[in-house]
């Protein structure tokens, strides 16, 4: 479990881990906040600036996980920087895994047991439910860091529209709908800016069906005008100067 080693103010820490035979018990301190999905439903529809703030934080959290893993792994590895970073993927990025402070919009990653180096598709299917934000190619046994970009793009769509792009009456039907791009996802004729629409398209692949290879990287996403234009000027300048985490 990778996340137990990470220390970050926006990753809810694990207090203790106990193993009893085949069972694993994880202890954490109580954390204040509202589940991000519940917050979205309660607010009905968030503003673009609110969504941009939340998505910026989520991207930075995921980038931290990848780069922190790289720092530890690279010490005794002959792999390149990108090779090592690509070996870790947060396999279950979904809106339910985050909590938010309703007043400050400060986001924390809450769910554990979901971040690891790559597993086989059989392992993946047997150890987790399939969230609606799961990338189509990842269900075809093709795990890449582009899966994370897709997932965050779907979360962006959910926060803006308060709608779920993929549905299914069963796990099998949901698998089918995701793999075959049978979704309600559309940015046509919606009451949001062109930059918001373009951001989602860039995160998903910008074609029908979406092409994973042309999705933005997380570093590129942080520099997208949708995120920069909706944050305070001082924060925007800070982001441009700092580049990646």
TrEMBL record:
Residues in Protein kinase domain copies: 1-227
Gene3D superfamilies assigned: Transferase(Phosphotransferase) domain 1
Q: Name one Pfam family in it.
A: Pkinase
GO molecular-function term, one example from the UniProt record = protein kinase activity
Its domain of life reads: Eukaryota
Protein name per Swiss-Prot or TrEMBL = Protein kinase domain-containing protein
Report the source organism: Euplotes crassus
* Organism classification: Eukaryota, Sar, Alveolata, Ciliophora, Intramacronucleata
